[in-house]
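Below is the data:
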Amino acid sequence: MNRTKNIISVFVMLLVLGANMKLNAQDPNFSQFFASPLTINPALTSDGESNWRAMTNIRTQTIGIGSPYSTQSFSMDGKLKKMDEDNFLGIGGMVLADRSMEGAFKSTYINLNASYHLSIDSKGNGLAVGLGFINNNTRVDYSTLTTDQQLSSTGFDRALPTGEPNLNPSISYSSACAGIMFTHVNDYSFLNVGIAGYRFVNSSRSLLDNKALYVSPRYDIHADFGTVIHDDLNVTFSAIHLIQNGSSSTSLGSSLAFGLRPGQFEMDQRRMLNAGIYYRLGDAVIPYIGYTHNEVQFGLSYDVNVSSVKSGSVSTRSFEISLIYKRFSPNSTPRMGRYHSPI
């Protein structure tokens, strides 16, 4: 079993390094994209009814007998300066970490965003613009890996030379992101439609100093619409289309929020059950269930693979957990359409 794990580790490392191939790397993303706004558009920074919020997402993906690939994020954003309820300056930050190969591969993103939300008329229409700075650091701990040159009669001996020259332990790059978003909000519904770009030039990401290895720019279009059906039932529709490296991915779906305390709209009386289903086109069906207790929201989803690409006997399993804490201003009057929404 140890030998098998070592072979798998080396194979994964070769996929990561890919010395003679273009690196078709994709940015980390979540199935619960609606619960991770700072990975979608910097214009979403401080969006919503809350004065500030803290969010964490944990995604674990397992392929066959290999070690899990996990993505974890923590973000915090809020309204830095409010001119009034619909005009404000927002600021936020996020740390996102990828981990695989039993910790041998680690990639960490740090993202700082600022946004401005502007009301353009008295009918609830507005615009939001956002700018952000991103720094990524990728590390590979070669001391935990083995190569065929280290195979001896007694097994793999890590004290032997790896036979791999010029292996750098880490590489970093910095980039920018920007986005714009149209918004509409009233007492009973809200709408966001936005477009954003991350890294507007190719960013080098080669541990072998190979110029052919890079991460391409990423662009996305997203939309969210939520409305009150009646006092204790809200429906939300969400969609996102990602474009990177000449390929694209589209996810869309809907969720319902059921009030568990009929007629209670006060901030300290909110109890909601959220249930929905999302679909990543050609890839996975994603059931979602969540629970909201006052200012805390929990979400759980599981990717059901429906891809036409067969993996033989290799099975894939992907779980995702989200946790959101929202802090509301004591002087604000929440609008039911957005306040009851699960995003």
